[in-house]
Design goal:
The protein is of the alpha/beta class and about 900 residues long. The protein is about 50% helix and about 15% strand. The chain has a five-stranded parallel beta sheet, sandwiched between helices. A five-stranded parallel beta sheet has the order 10-9-8-11-12, sandwiched between helices. The chain has a five-stranded antiparallel beta sheet with strand order 14-13-17-16-15. Strand 8, helix 11 and strand 9 form a beta-alpha-beta unit. The N terminus and C terminus are likely disordered.
Length: about 900
């Protein structure tokens, strides 16, 4: 074996590495300090490394560091240059965040960014801090950062299940995996608990709560294991990347990955199950490999089906499966193991065959010779397969055996015909030339008929040469011993030439088939790339699969409810089987374990987001009907076709969704613009009409009773029209984001009272009750807007209930929200329209003589949601009226200011202050 330094890397791989290195050279480096939980010392270790770099003359800048009140950590900041934070106004508060623009302007060689998974305040350039870091890295700035294991996206649910706490701030695993360095900061659980009690992790009150919940010893041990395992996975990836970069071929036994070798014999399932158990015991990943040789290509269908089921079993048990075509089983296995850095290969124990061992060493022995650094584990045969038995084919193999017999007969006839044709040429040709003609016949037979017939043609050719041309002629006796050597050489050359020619013929046929499959996939993907309608995908997929697999195909697509729709005409399909395949995302029908008696194969079209339909295939009639489903490469080929069709269907679906959303957005924008324009244009004349109507009612001399009624009617209608226009204008302002909330801590009782006074004219014919809890806390809200919500709800209740009905306003604390309910004892809401009434221009009664355009509840929802709350209508209950409930989030109101003692004494004595 050549040493590592002398092995030549693949040119394409080398070029890709050079391009990646050039791209990486212009990008900053990211180092992550990784730990199991807060308090292990990640920030401290990052700051200590920064201080050492600063002492060595490295220019750096502290972008953001969270000390959490830890004195040791804060002391590490002394002497380090710190970037001032940026003030951001958020909901009436001033918060401070990392100043990305200033950091990019100063462009330090190195910057410290604590808590990589942190969520930025709304109004920042990026919602996440790791996105700020990505922009810094793209600018060529190196970054030091910290991450806890519970913040990794892939482990978030696992940690939540262990600790009972799901953190909201997560980091994509791709960011962690792309980091140039990962430094594990680790301490034992007992040491971390000791630090927690000493107040080195949280303040005393927080530490007491943390020790009772998150910081339990069992939790910390489990988190530590997760952090160690995730770091080990990262190091394993680094090792593999280094091996690829340096073109290192020998296996490094740094991991415990296993490789199960699948063969054509019945013991393959036993090898797979044994490997799965061993991988579970070692907690290691494992692979399953099947090497397809020219001889295995000609296996009976029953054996090929067994191989496919064995690979499917391995995949179901968690293995990565692969099929490699090669004439050398041992060489292919060793190549795969080296490429994946697998140190342990599991093989089945072969049956004793002395003649085969004399001709060729067993694959396991050849693996040991080719790769002495790989561990070989031999699995014994299961009891049912310990005794050799002859595989029995099915009736479909009889025509195949008959055609095989005819190939041998044609091979023998070709050698005999060559000998007879050479008899008239004997006076003109030497015996050596006649021997060359015999060898030429062997080569042609190997090209056309295969390896076995070529071997027979070689034997027949040598016999004919001896019988017809070598003296004494027409006898198998040999007068000169030199001809014995000639016969041996002719036989050996014929056999070797036939073997090599048949192998090349097989490889050429395999390459041709693969090229045809690749060309079919390329043409299929090219045709799908430009389609914009589902009907085009249907036609293209149907014709492409029928050409590639010689089977009639059709697509079954779901409706909005997820039920598959049968196509018009075509083959009779079992919708029940197709629906099962769609619902379970598994293949069904012929060639599968689910309803295999069905003549049709149902394959779900699984796209990245969801299953988009089912591909139904009916193989053509004949002896080989459905056999292509049993070939691993053919099944993978079909799965690729199905995946491309599914992605195309999903792409067209989202194109339709995007077009619909764009149309809706444009319609909303146009409608809001029209509403705003009309509202502005109508507001001034309506205000004038209201004033004129009021002046008309108060004019002197006094109006007659009939004229006064007309003036008052004019005034009420103009006021109603003005309110309608105000609603339109407010809705347009809210949706455009022009409304700024004036949030203040205040009592709910005040705004309820003002709303009742403002709605007095509308509530004159109704009884109004209030049921406000006596201990309602202060809530932070915009009083004007919440009063508007209550007014709209009260006016709606008065509008849709008969005179004399009772309207009630209730309020109380429910969890973390203040809940306000406005209900009545009227007819209630229409059943099933509890959500629709909150849409714009939607009324409680579709056809009604009651005034309004259906904007009141839409304005209520917009205002409540702007406060971070929710609003909904309770389902109708017989005997009860309508009930609208809205909730506002509670908070912690500021403490009231304390009265100083001197001021209090002054007030008591009456002295001026």
């Amino acid at each position: 074996m050549l040493p590592n330094d002398s092995q030549r890397p693949d040119p394409d791989t080398l070029l890709a590495q050079v391009q990646a290195q050039e791209k990486k050279a212009a990008r900053g480096r990211l180092r992550i300090y990784f730990g199991a939980s807060a308090g292990v010392g990640k920030t401290y270790a990052m700051l200590a490394a920064a201080r050492k770099l600063l002492a060595d003359g490295q220019d750096l800048l502290v972008g953001v560091v969270e000390t959490h009140g830890r004195q040791d950590t804060a002391a590490q900041l002394d002497g380090l240059p710190v970037l001032p934070l940026k003030a951001i106004e958020y909901r009436g508060k001033t918060l401070f965040e990392f100043d990305l623009d200033e950091a990019l302007r100063r462009a330090p060689p190195l910057i410290l960014m604590d808590e990589l998974a942190h969520s930025n305040v709304a109004g920042s350039r990026h919602p996440k801090r790791w996105q700020d870091v990505e922009e810094l890295l793209a600018a060529g700035i190196d970054v030091l950062s910290t991450v806890n294991v519970q913040h990794l996206e892939s482990l978030n649910d696992v940690v939540g299940g262990i600790t009972g706490v799901r953190v909201a701030e997560t980091l994509p695993d791709t960011v962690f995996d792309r980091a140039d360095e990962v430094v594990l900061v680790d301490i034992p659980a007992d040491e971390l608990l000791r630090r927690l009690k000493q107040g080195k992790v949280y303040q005393p009150l927080q530490a007491e709560r943390a020790s009772q919940h998150f910081f339990r010893k069992g939790n910390l041990i489990a988190l530590r294991e997760l952090a160690l395992r995730r770091t080990a996975d990262r190091v394993q990836d680094d090792v593999q990347a280094y091996r690829v970069e340096k073109s290192i071929n020998p296996v490094w036994k740094t991991g415990a990955a296993l490789l199960a070798c699948v063969g054509p014999h019945a013991g393959g399932e036993h090898v797979i199950r044994s490997t799965a158990r061993l991988a579970s015991q070692l907690n290691a990943e494992w692979h399953a490999l099947y090497v397809e040789t020219p001889r295995l290509q000609r296996l009976p269908a029953s054996q090929r089906e067994r191989i496919l089921k064995t690979l499917k079993l391995a995949q179901d048990l968690g293995a990565r499966t692969a099929v490699m075509p090669s004439a050398d089983i041992a060489g292919a296995v060793v190549e795969y193991a080296r490429s994946a850095n697998i140190s342990k290969v599991i093989v089945g124990r072969g049956r004793a065959n002395a003649l085969a061992r004399l001709w060729q060493a067993p694959p396991a022995a050849r693996m040991a010779s080719l790769a002495p650094d790989i561990d070989l584990i031999e699995v014994g045969l299961p009891p049912a397969d310990a005794a050799p038995r002859r595989a029995v084919g099915d009736d479909a193999e009889v025509p195949r055996r008959t055609s095989r017999h005819w190939r041998y007969i044609l091979a023998a006839g070709a050698s005999l015909a060559t000998a007879l044709a050479s008899v008239p040429l004997q006076p003109y040709l030497d015996l050596a030339n006649i021997a060359m003609l015999s060898l030429l016949t062997v080569v042609l037979v190997a090209v056309r008929l295969g390896r076995g017939p070529a071997a027979l043609a070689s034997l027949v050719g040598v016999a004919c040469f001896d019988f017809v041309f070598v003296p004494p002629r027409f006898s198998f006796a040999v007068g000169d011993f030199q001809y014995v050597i000639t016969f041996g050489v002719m036989l050996a050359v014929g056999l070797i030439t036939g073997h090599l020619t048949a192998g090349l013929r097989f490889q050429a046929r395999v390459a041709s088939h693969r090229e045809a499959r690749a060309r079919a996939l390329y043409e299929f993907s090219r045709e799908l790339s430009g389609v914009l309608q589902t009907e085009q995908i249907f036609d293209i997929t149907k014709s492409a699969i029928e050409r590639a697999f010689r089977a009639r195909a059709t697509l079954l697509l779901p409706d909005d409810e997820g039920s598959l729709q049968a196509p018009n005409g075509g083959e009779p399909l079992d919708i029940g089987i197709a629906q099962w395949a769609f619902d379970h995302a598994q293949a069904a029908g012929t060639g599968t374990d689910t309803l295999p008696a069905s003549p049709i194969f149902y394959l779900p079209l699984i796209a990245p987001m969801r299953t988009r339909g089912v591909l139904a295939l009916l193989p053509l009639e004949g002896a080989q009907r459905g056999r292509w489903l049993l070939v691993p490469e053919q099944r993978q080929h079909l799965d690729t076709f199905a995946a491309l069709a599914a992605i195309a269907l999903e792409r067209v679906h989202y194109i339709d969704v995007a077009q619909g959303a764009l149309l809706q957005m444009e319609s909303e924008r146009l409608r809001n613009s029209l509403l705003a324009a009309l509202s502005h244009d109508l507001r001034t004349p309506l205000t004038s009409l209201v004033g004129l109507a009021e002046s008309l009612a108060l004019s002197r001399p006094a109006l007659s009773p009939a004229q006064l009624d007309m003036a008052r009617s004019l005034q009420s209608e103009t006021v109603r029209m003005s309110a309608l226009v105000a609603n339109l204008l407010d809705m347009a302002r809210i949706e455009s984001g022009q409304v700024r909330l004036n949030l203040q801590w205040q009592a709910l009782e005040e705004v309820v009272g003002s709303a009742l006074r403002a709605s007095g004219p509308q509530l004159q014919q109704h009884a109004v009750q209030t049921q406000l809890a006596p201990d309602l806390p202060l809530v932070r809200y915009d009083a004007v807007l919440i009063e508007r919500v209550l007014c709209n709800l009260l006016e709606n209740a008065a509008k849709y209930t008969p005179a004399g009905s009772t309207i009630t306003v209730a309020a109380g604390v429910h969890g973390q929200f203040l809940q306000v309910t406005v209900f009545d004892d009227g007819p209630g809401l229409p059943s099933g329209r509890e959500e629709a009434i909150f849409e714009k221009f939607t009324r409680g009664e579709r056809e009604s003589n009651k005034p309004g355009v259906g904007l009141g509840l839409a304005i209520c929802r917009a205002i409540v949601e702007a406060h971070g709350g929710t609003i909904h209508a309770q389902p109708h209950t017989p005997g009860q009226g309508a009930a609208i409930v809205f909730s506002l989030p509670l908070g912690t109101p500021p403490a009231p200011p304390e009265i100083e003692l001197d001021d209090a004494n002054d007030h008591e004595t009456g002295k001026p202050t």
